[in-house]
Amino acid sequence: MGSTENKRYHAIVFDCPEQTLTGVRELRKAGFIVDDVHTPFPIHGMPEAMGLRDTRLAYGPLVGGIVGLAFAIWLQIWTHSVSWPINIGGKSMTAIPAIIPVSFELTVLLAGIATVVALFWACRLRPSTKIPTSQPHIRVNDDRFVVVVIEQDGSFLMSEFRALTTELGSAELHESWRSTWSLLLVVVIFSLTMFSGCRASGDEPGYVVTPGMVTSVPWDPYEPNELTSTGLTLLSPPEGTIPMGFTPHAYGVTPEETARAGRELRNKVSNTPKELARGKWVYNTYCSLCHGPRGEGDGSVIGAGRFPNPASLVAKRAKKLADGSIYHIITVGQGLMPSHAVQVAPTDRWRAIRYVRKLQTASVGGGKP
Description:
By secondary structure, this protein is α+β, with helices and mostly antiparallel strands. Helix content is 43%, strand content 9%. The protein has 2 domains: 1-184, no CATH class; 255-362, Cytochrome c-like domain (Cytochrome Bc1 Complex, Chain D, domain 2, Orthogonal Bundle). The protein has a 5-stranded antiparallel sheet, with helices on one face. The model is unreliable at 1-5 (pLDDT under 50).
């Protein structure tokens, strides 16, 4: 029965692991092909008895990880340096720390996918046109030990096989066929299932497999809502209220408003080492890119082909500005400098001003006015 279309399988049932292990050895010694062994628990020595070699499953995740890492590095360098180069704070286009997160994620992702694919392939769970029509035994993996022998070619002698299984003390012997199903039928059914969600009109979504991910359960912010007084889901805050944690800044963007802020606003942050350390961190993070590490207007993004020199923070004019005026400029912006109200919290603005005063005290030349 060596046909490529149909193959006969013989399930030999044993009652104990010792008989099963001995049976596998004797069957292979007699020239029979042991296709698989089903047991309720692992049997020590079974891989050697079946002639299984050491697993090479680790090569799958290794190759997948290498491919993922190489692809992630190439994609980020190509995107940042060739396809869409953007100068972000004067950073290098190929800064290694910046590409580590994505490289790590793609390495793990492709290694994991390769592990699953390699495992399915090694366990012969890959797509096939040959589908078993029955299982070896109804109590397989329950309390029976089943050895599956396959008829590979015409040299299989049934009489010799039955005599050997009887000699080995098998409790039962079953036969089953493996039939060939049309892979084309499987592909057609899968394709019909996938295309069932399509429609001729682009305005209809078709059949929705996961409606919970398409239709929002809560109200959308700009969706009409008959439950509210205004008929809208998104409501305006009540008059006279402000969001929690928000500090109002009732000053305009004119020079007169800057001067008024200098007269009315006071720096309530104490001039302590702890506050200065925090102010230094804020300055180095948000200010030094343009104003430079010493406040002289020579930051890393300043120069030919980049941004023009900003005003020096250690010049006489800057030293004469009140703390409130500097706070106002940080909050609303001035000239090419945008507002930093979103990036820097109000208290951190006052701390940065404390550190700027320290730079002004230590300055000798004063930089450009």
